[in-house]
TrEMBL record:
GO terms for molecular function: coenzyme F420 binding; oxidoreductase activity, acting on the CH-CH group of donors. One of its GO terms (cellular component) is cytosol. The keyword Oxidoreductase applies. This is PPOX class probable F420-dependent enzyme. Gene3D superfamilies: Electron Transport, Fmn-binding Protein, Chain A. Residues 44-150 form the Pyridoxamine 5'-phosphate oxidase N-terminal domain. NCBIfam families: Rv1155_F420 (TIGR03618). Keywords: Oxidoreductase. Pfam families: PNPOx_N. It comes from Saccharomonospora marina XMU15. InterPro entries: F420-binding_dom_put, F420H2_bilvrd_red/Heme_oxyg, Pyridox_Oxase_N, Split_barrel_FMN-bd.
Amino acid sequence: MFSRRRAPLNTADTRLVTARDTRVPSAIMRQMSKTEWWSFASEGTRTGKLAVVRPDGSPHVTPIWFVLACGAGGADEFVFNTGATSVKGRSLLADPRVSMAVDDQRPPYSYVHFTGEARISEDLEEMLHWATVIGGRYMGAEQAEAFGKRNAVPGEYLVRVRITNVVAHADLAD
């Protein structure tokens, strides 16, 4: 397997130097603060690209609609709905570990990557609340209630992911 090992950043000339890679990083790339990544991930109708581990061990990535929330004990979470019989639903029952990327595909390019552990709820009242919030974000206030009612039914899951790690960078390219 090909492995790309990087030497430490040489701050004198801001180049990453390796035996096989001599890329020059953006002079403006920077790490986002929590306030910045929260705002970035919550902006408009950006979708998340959620990765789960299927029961057979293979990866599965799919776009999702989500919202960020402050969970129990002040823990940061992202929340979404999925069908109980979907690949996501079945996979999360077998293995609650997830990763999600949210990115801006326009220059100067930015992204946030979340890692966490999912908790599944079938509580219809809780599901209605969050499905309505998610519907409002992605479909607008006028359709939020209908979206919530459509998704808060038996056979659907409310998934709350407690975020355990965040990597967030802004302005990757000039």
